[in-house]
Task: inverse folding
């Protein structure tokens, strides 16, 4: 785990104008406690060694940087996949979950709560809690429970309680809101393991620090295999944790283009999408100021994506800051194109990608097809076994 940061953070976790804390007074002491605990832990060699050992021996790091030869032929450009789908539990979420649950134990907390959309973070949190022997409660929208049944069953087997959330669209936004309400009521004993780089300070920076192992490994592996850095680093963006972790390894390399791929859903010209960076406005959601999908009166809109993990109307504040500075570019891919990429990567490489990751693959195959002699790195954030039943249920031939 590196101590370097992506860029300067201002007091109270500001990324330029974004970030901060917009929460009830009840939570301020808990956020101060967490900030202090994380500052101490990441400077503690024993904590760092314990986390590194778990990452190596339990999670299975480093994950491979894989030269996808048939995908490269399809794209017309050398393309590597950073295989977070091969991490234990099948997604990058375990990097953050292990770190936060280990931190919670260090803080003396006896109960973990988490939210989940696609179920990957819920499974990761349940796994970390089983490993470290601590109670785990996961909030999940009932629509996502329907779409991600295999992951719900995995969480139960791991000993976690899954609490259905019936409010609103019954997806990730409502699950986050329910988890925050629980945290306010039980803050003395409970740590909230946020699954993405969102929420009030210190969560966006904390999650980035725990996920930047993706980018640090990818940079080192790219130099070992190619002797030079990639031209482009590409990752899907919902809340943005896999993307900010991947970008963190390259953000100081000005010659490397950083590209985040959002969910265009049924199209950016409709209200059925999840592209808060491409089509949102500056607003507050779940304790942080960032790019958020809102209506003309500033009310939060429902997001839509075929991918439960991208079905969120906001994004981590650091992404909004990278966008405004011009350091990262954000594009959007439709449900239809993501589904096509889900099928294509399965047939080309024998790798079934998560629908979230399929958005990044779809952009590389489609709009991002540029040819040339350089090469790209795409973060394959998770595996798609969990999505197969949903894809079949909506009638998409596989």
Result:
């Amino acid at each position: 785990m590196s101590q370097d940061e992506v860029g300067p953070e201002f007091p109270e976790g500001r990324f330029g104008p974004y970030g901060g804390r917009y929460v009830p007074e009840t939570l301020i002491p808990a956020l101060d406690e967490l900030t202090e605990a994380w500052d101490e832990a990441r400077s503690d060699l024993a904590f760092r060694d314990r986390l590194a050992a778990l990452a190596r021996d339990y999670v299975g790091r480093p994950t491979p940087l894989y030269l996808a030869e048939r995908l490269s032929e399809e794209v017309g450009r050398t393309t590597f996949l950073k295989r977070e789908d091969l991490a234990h539990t099948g997604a990058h979420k375990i990097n953050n979950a292990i770190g936060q649950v280990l931190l919670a134990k260090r803080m003396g907390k006896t109960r973990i709560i988490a939210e989940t959309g696609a179920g990957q973070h819920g499974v990761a949190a349940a796994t970390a809690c089983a490993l470290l022997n601590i109670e785990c409660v996961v909030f999940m929208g009932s629509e996502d429970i329907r779409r991600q049944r295999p992951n719900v069953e995995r969480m139960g087997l791991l000993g976690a309680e899954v609490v259905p959330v019936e409010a609103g669209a019954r997806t990730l936004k409502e699950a986050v809101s329910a988890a925050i309400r629980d945290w306010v009521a039980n803050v003395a004993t409970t740590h909230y393991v946020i699954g993405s780089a969102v929420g009030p300070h210190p969560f966006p920076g904390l999650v980035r620090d725990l996920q930047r192992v993706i980018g640090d490994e990818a940079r080192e592996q790219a130099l070992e295999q190619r002797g030079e850095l990639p031209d482009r680093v590409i990752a899907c963006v919902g809340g943005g944790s896999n993307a900010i972790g991947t970008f963190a390894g390259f953000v100081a390399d000005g010659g490397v283009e950083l590209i985040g791929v959002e969910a265009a859903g049924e199209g950016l010209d409709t209200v059925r999408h999840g592209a808060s960076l491409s089509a949102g406005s500056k607003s507050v959601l779940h304790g942080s100021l960032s790019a958020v999908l809102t209506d003309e009166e500033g009310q939060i809109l429902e997001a839509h994506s075929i991918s439960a993990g991208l079905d969120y109307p906001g994004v981590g504040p650091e992404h909004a800051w990278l966008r405004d500075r011009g350091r990262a570019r954000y594009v959007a891919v439709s449900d239809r194109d993501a589904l096509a990429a889900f099928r294509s990567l399965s047939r080309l490489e024998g790798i079934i990608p998560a629908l979230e990751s399929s958005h990044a693959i779809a952009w590389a195959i489609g709009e991002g097809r540029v040819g040339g002699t350089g090469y790209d790195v795409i973060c394959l954030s998770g595996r798609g076994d969990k999505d197969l039943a949903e894809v079949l249920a909506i009638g998409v031939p596989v």
